[in-house]
Give the backbone structure.
Amino acid sequence: MMTIKQGWQGRVFEDFEVGDVYRHPLGRTVTQNDNIWFSLLTMNSNPVHFDSAYSAKTEWGTPLVNSALTLALVMGMSVTDISQNAVNLGWDEVRLPNPLYEGDTVYAQSEVLEKRESNSRPHQGIVSFRTTGYNQDGQIVITYKRTVLVYKRGYVPEIARPNPEGG
């Protein structure tokens, strides 16, 4: 007899405690294609992101990863730990202290800064985090504060999952 086990469903409001730190489990190596495609898809026309000959003449000597891609990747890495059951309310204090380069691998962690009940939504709460992205050498490439509206236990909408065996 096969036993079906529930997969990770993400944290809810009650799971967060101020001071907790989540080291997000996955890293991601940024390729040249990632950087070029993201820059062109988002209409970022700065050649430092997609023109190697131009970038070679800059102080960095090589293309820089588009900062919006850095933000998107690091935020995405945090979803499984902090916002799988939430929606974004905003990002604040975004800082890029060091560049991320094509070929670098980015990792991330988040710390719970604040949490409170929602005044207008009794089935949800508001939680703020400080997220830090860093490269394979431990050099910080991005930090930001992110605030989310997260469901409380018992209120997370159920995901429709069809039974693959038809039963």
